[in-house]
């Protein structure tokens, strides 16, 4: 008899972005990154082992994944099997609470939920820190979604050194909001994995890496003091610095759409009028607007009315967790 193990994990938004990998594989980041785990944008994943199946069976949403995504998930399951010294294949069912193709990265919540469900299904009893390392093997940013609230992923040249730690739990700053502005629902053409690989070709990378330690310290302090202005200013700087590296890589990566710039300009206009809002942007055209509960209605209203974009408001959420375990 086996077990079907179901886990949930939230996506996350980084204030200091992870961009650029060490060359030896294993998603070893070049720089520390700091993020907030989200409460509403969640992936739910069930893993069930099969004594008889000759291969893994993977369903994402209603459908089987494309070949690339399937290989990535199978390779991840192979690493869990090696760790557990087990050989059974797995059935994996995964759904997102946020609409597919809405431009929210699902790799962080997806691999965090898979890491928790798969390690438990294969009989491993990993501590939180080891789970963050395991999730990182699937997707670098997934290491941060293992933990709730405000989380830092340490960089490192070896697997053991690159793990995530919680800076503060989600209860520390419940009023903080991430308003996700959907500029485009198009799938991105160049994956983050490819972007991390070519970051080395940018003449801006060295400057970015030099600037990060003091920026990361400002962000740690802003989180500790619940200081939105300090957090937002540093997060904007960091997003622009990461996109400068992207734009100056070979080949150049330009994730922005005209609407991305419209949101940036509107955020700056709002700030001049004393509406507290700051932007950050991941590897895509959508914009995450950082604000607080107090300003949310005003910020959301202005973005929708002026620019006509759909938005999703999210807040700090818990870490990855088992939500169901049943005999199968
Ligand atoms: C821009 O974690 O998506 O969102 O390890 O290839 O899955 P892989 O990369 P991924 O990279 C995250 C890039 C980012 C910044 C961040 O979340 O830190």
Describe the structure.
With 328 residues, the chain is an alpha+beta fold. The chain has nine helices and eleven strands. The radius of gyration is 19 Å and the shape is globular. The chain is 38% helix and 25% strand. Strands 1, 2, 3, 4, 5, 6 and 11 form a seven-stranded mixed beta sheet that branches. It has a four-stranded antiparallel beta sheet with strand order 8-9-7-10.
Instruction: Based on Cα principal axes, name the global outline.
Output: globular
Derived structural class: alpha+beta
The residue ranges in which pLDDT falls below 50 over 5 or more consecutive positions are none
Percent helix: 25-40%
The helix/strand series, from N terminus to C terminus, equals EEEHEHHHEEEHHHHEEHEE
Beta strand %: 15-25%
| Bound ligands | ligand DP6
Radius of gyration: 19 Å
For the secondary structure, the number of strands is 11
* Main beta sheet strand tally, sense and closure: 7 strands, mixed
Q: Counting H and I runs of at least 4 residues, what is the number of helices? A: 9
- Compute the separation of the termini in Å: 6 Å
Instruction: Output mean pLDDT.
Output: 95
Explain the layout of strands and helices:
Blueprint: E1 3-16, E2 33-50, E3 57-60, H1 67-84, E4 89-96, H2 107-121, H3 128-138, H4 142-145, E5 150-153, E6 164-168, E7 176-182, H5 192-198, H6 205-224, H7 228-247, H8 258-272, E8 278-280, E9 287-292, H9 293-307, E10 310-314, E11 321-327
Parallel strand pairs: 3-4
Antiparallel strand pairs: 1-2, 1-11, 2-4, 2-5, 5-6, 7-9, 7-10, 8-9
The structure holds ligand DP6.
């Amino acid at each position: 008899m086996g077990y079907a193990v179901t886990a949930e994990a939230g996506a996350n938004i980084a204030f200091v972005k992870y961009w650029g990998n060490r060359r030896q594989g294993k998603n070893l980041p070049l720089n520390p990154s700091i993020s907030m785990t989200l409460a509403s944008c969640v992936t739910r994943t069930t893993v069930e082992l099969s004594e008889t199946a000759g291969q893994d069976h993977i369903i994402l949403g209603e459908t089987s994944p494309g070949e690339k995504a399937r290989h990535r998930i199978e390779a991840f399951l192979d690493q869990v099997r090696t760790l557990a010294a087990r050989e059974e294949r797995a059935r994996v069912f995964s759904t997102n609470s946020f609409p597919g193709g809405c431009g929210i990265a699902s790799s962080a919540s997806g691999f965090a939920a898979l890491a928790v469900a798969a390690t438990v299904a294969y009989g491993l009893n990993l501590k939180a820190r080891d789970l963050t390392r395991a999730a990182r093997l699937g997707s670098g940013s997934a290491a941060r979604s293992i933990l709730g609230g405000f989380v830092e992923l340490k960089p490192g040249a070896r697997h053991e050194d690159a793990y995530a730690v919680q800076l503060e739990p989600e209860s520390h700053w419940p009023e903080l909001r991430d308003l996700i502005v959907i500029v485009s629902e198009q799938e991105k053409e160049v994956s983050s994995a490819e972007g991390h690989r070519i970051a080395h070709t940018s003449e801006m990378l060295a400057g970015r890496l030099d600037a990060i330690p003091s920026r990361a310290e400002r962000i740690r302090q802003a989180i500790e003091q619940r200081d939105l202005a300090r957090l937002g200013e540093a997060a904007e700087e960091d997003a622009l610095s990461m996109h400068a590296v992207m734009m100056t890589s070979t080949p150049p990566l330009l994730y922005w759409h005209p609407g991305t710039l419209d949101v940036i300009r509107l955020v700056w206009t709002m700030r001049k009028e004393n509406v507290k809002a700051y932007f950050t942007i991941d590897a895509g055209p959508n914009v995450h607007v950082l604000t607080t509960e107090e300003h949310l209605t005003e910020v959301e209203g202005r973005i929708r009315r002026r620019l006509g974009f759909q938005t999703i408001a999210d807040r700090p959420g818990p870490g990855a967790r088992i939500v169901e375990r049943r005999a199968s």
